[in-house]
Write a structure and sequence with these properties.
single chain; BirA Bifunctional Protein, domain 2; Rossmann fold; 2 domains; eight-stranded mixed β-sheet; 13 helices; elongated; binds adenosine-5'-triphosphate; binds magnesium ion
Length: 425
């Protein structure tokens, strides 16, 4: 029989990994709650036109990476490659910013047809935050504080650094672009093929190039920061002060760009050196020009997105996953196979009286000895045994104590011992 395998770059998340995901998700969720952000759940399928307009046809995402198809009625549909576009669409479609601001978050799968490698998948998960209606550096700083809190509770803050930059406004960028294009034209001999193409479509992106032969030329290129007008400069200075006040360290990277016209002012990335070349864990910034592509109103906006798989890889690489597991607290075992119904009821009674404990019954049909060795492997704290003579045994693996007890003594003893193994918060 021919094997059917999962699509390249699209993975199942198996039970030995889900505890990590759940742990991370519960931490992230708690932070969104504390900052007063509300969840939105957006469609996974969207019209192709949404991304052509919002992300832009000159980008790698739209020109190369989208999973497009025609549905049965001939509509051009795609699997969403990122979250911001759908979120903006939902905000405009539902008039969510009428006389109010919005702070939103989402999490879910994104799809890009890229070359799969460590930290780069074809189906991956983003946690994203988008805010609407707030033009100042204050909200940009709040977003960065929030991302920083996430990295702190996940214990990866030591392994990650913040880079920031300002892209100014469109007119400021146009001035800079003229100078930049003329600089690149003077150095055409150094430009690689990709960059020559970008010189026409998106010269700012050339600054992003990793080609070692182009680095000196790029270092010396005209800097966008020198073209900022007074308001943009003030916005950037305020952001820097707000980060300094919060004790958040950063470097200003004048080469940090997002190649699209609707980006304005603040851009930032959180980067780690622990994951090789897929080191960008979070990217974000301000996109004051995006909403007006969908509506006749202008609406300032800013946000960020974290790649969850990269964040999990970082947690694993730096050893932060060693305490995250889902052992049961109590395993119920039984000596005689015909007592299986009794054992089922016994487990239920224990759950009722010990509402925070995880209780697991062994229905494998194995002999008692095998049940015990499986329970020991599971990492549980207690083994409760229903013996052939109907007496109940409690084995506390921490104190290595065996006792024969009545049912209510079992849950009272366990309760008295307090918090046991891993408990999800
Ligand atoms: P990269 O430069 O690594 O390709 P990007 O600029 O395409 O990233 P964004 O579109 O800003 O990434 O997406 C935000 C985050 O989503 C990235 O910082 C990264 O953590 C994650 N991400 C993007 N593409 C992938 C992918 N193919 N697989 C896994 N994670 C991804
Ligand atoms: Mg990419």
């Amino acid at each position: 029989m021919s094997k059917i395998q999962s699509i390249r770059g699209m993975h199942s998340i198996l039970p030995d990994e889900t505890p990590m995901w759940q742990w991370l998700e519960s931490k992230v969720r708690a932070i969104t709650y504390r900052y007063g952000y509300q969840e939105v759940r957006l469609p996974i399928l969207e019209p192709v036109a949404l991304f052509e307009r919002a992300v832009g046809e000159s980008t790698d995402i739209v020109s190369k990476e989208m999973y497009n198809f025609l549905d049965k009625s001939g509509e051009h549909i795609t699997l969403r490659p990122e979250g911001t576009s759908g979120c903006v669409r939902a905000v405009v479609e539902n008039n969510m910013c009428y006389n109010t601001t919005q702070r939103l978050w989402y999490q879910g799968p994104m799809f890009r047809y890229e070359r799969p490698q460590k930290g780069r998948l074809r189906q991956f998960t983003q946690f994203g935050v988008e805010t609407f209606g707030m033009p100042g550096a204050d909200i940009d700083a709040e977003l960065i504080y929030m991302a920083w809190d996430i990295f702190k509770v996940l214990n990866v803050d030591r392994f990650i650094r913040l880079e920031i930059n300002s892209l100014g406004t469109l007119p400021e960028r146009k001035e800079h672009r003229k100078e930049l294009v003329s600089w690149f034209n003077q150095h055409r001999d150094v430009l690689d093929e990709d960059s020559l193409r970008r010189l026409e479509s998106n010269p700012l992106r050339i600054l992003d190039s990793k080609n070692p032969d182009m680095q000196t030329m790029i270092e010396e290129a005209p800097r966008l920061l020198d073209f900022l007008g007074e308001e943009s400069r003030e916005h950037f200075d305020t952001l820097r002060t707000l980060l300094d006040n919060a004790g958040i360290q950063y470097v200003v990277n004048p080469r940090l760009v997002r190649g699209l016209d609707y980006y304005t002012r603040t851009v930032f990335e959180w980067i780690t050196d622990e994951l090789g070349s897929q080191g960008t864990v979070c990217g974000g910034g301000r996109y004051d020009g995006l909403v007006e592509l969908f509506s006749d109103k202008k609406l300032p906006a800013s946000g960020f997105a974290i790649g969850i798989e990269r964040l999990l890889l970082l947690i694993q690489t730096t050893g932060g996953d060693s305490n995250i597991h889902h052992s049961p607290d109590i395993v119920v075992t039984y000596e005689q196979q015909e007592d299986n119904i009794e054992a089922l009821l016994l487990a239920n009674t224990l759950r009722q009286h010990l509402p925070t404990k995880k209780v697991f019954s062994d229905f494998s049909g194995s002999r008692l000895k095998r049940q015990h060795s499986n329970a020991l492997k599971s990492g549980c704290r207690y083994i409760v045994t229903l013996n052939a003579d109907r007496r109940l045994g409690l084995w506390d693996l921490v104190g290595n104590r065996h006792e024969t007890l009545r049912l209510e003594e079992i849950w009272k003893t366990i309760n008295a011992a307090g918090k046991t193994a891993f408990q999800t918060e």
